[in-house]
Design a protein that fits this description.
This protein starts with a strand and ends with a helix. Strand 2 (32-34) and strand 3 form a beta hairpin. A 3-stranded antiparallel sheet has the order 1-3-2. The protein is 74% helix and 4% strand. It is built from 9 helices and 3 strands. It is mainly α.
């Protein structure tokens, strides 16, 4: 929970740009207004989280397939850099660096589709699920090297499918990656 005035102070700006930005984020359901002219990030229920993950699989599976169908392997290779960054920072439990690498990987993957409508839909949805991911990663639990190894292997396989122009494999691998990440986050939250 934070007031608009405090946001303006923290960002060293006037109230008007803060009001405009907050209004856009509220319209995208990334923030909610609460009494006292304050805002907060809405908490996702299990049902909302399930729905978001299902939609992510549909949209991002399609984005991966479109990226592969474009047959531009040189555009896919930078994804390996994000994966390598996750390999370093996740075991260190550096949540900020891990979230930045996840964001960079996801954005690069979706932008590889070159579909403006698809990119817009995924980016709007991202506003709703990124805080959920961050809160799950911040749960005080031991590092799970098996999960990290598995998910990063899947991401590498996905990049190889995109490089090879294999749209069906890219779609399948992205959905598999998302499903395993969903299960991992849910387990950190205590959801079964």
């Amino acid at each position: 929970r934070i007031s608009l005035r405090k946001l303006a102070t923290l960002l060293n700006t006037s109230m008007q740009p803060v009001r405009e930005a907050v209004s856009k984020l509220v319209a995208d359901s990334a923030l909610e207004v609460i009494p006292g002219r304050a805002v907060r990030v809405p908490q996702l229920s299990r049902e909302q989280a399930d729905e978001i993950w299902t939609i992510r699989m549909l949209l991002e599976g399609e984005a991966a397939a479109q990226f592969a169908a474009r047959k531009c392997p040189e555009e896919a290779r930078p994804l390996y850099g994000h994966t390598d960054t996750m390999r370093v920072h996740y075991p260190e439990q550096d949540h900020l660096a891990t979230m930045k690498a996840i964001r960079g990987w996801n954005i690069a993957l979706v932008h590889g589709s070159k579909s403006p409508v698809l990119i817009d839909m995924v980016m709007r949805l991202r506003l709703r699920y990124a805080p959920f991911i961050a809160s799950c990663l911040a749960v005080d639990q031991p590092h799970d090297p098996d999960f990290v190894s598995f998910t990063l292997h899947i991401q590498d396989e996905l990049v190889m499918a995109i490089e090879a122009g294999d749209a069906a494999a890219a779609r399948h691998l992205r959905c598999s990656d998302l499903r395993s990440f969903q299960r991992y986050l849910y387990s950190r939250r205590g959801w079964r």
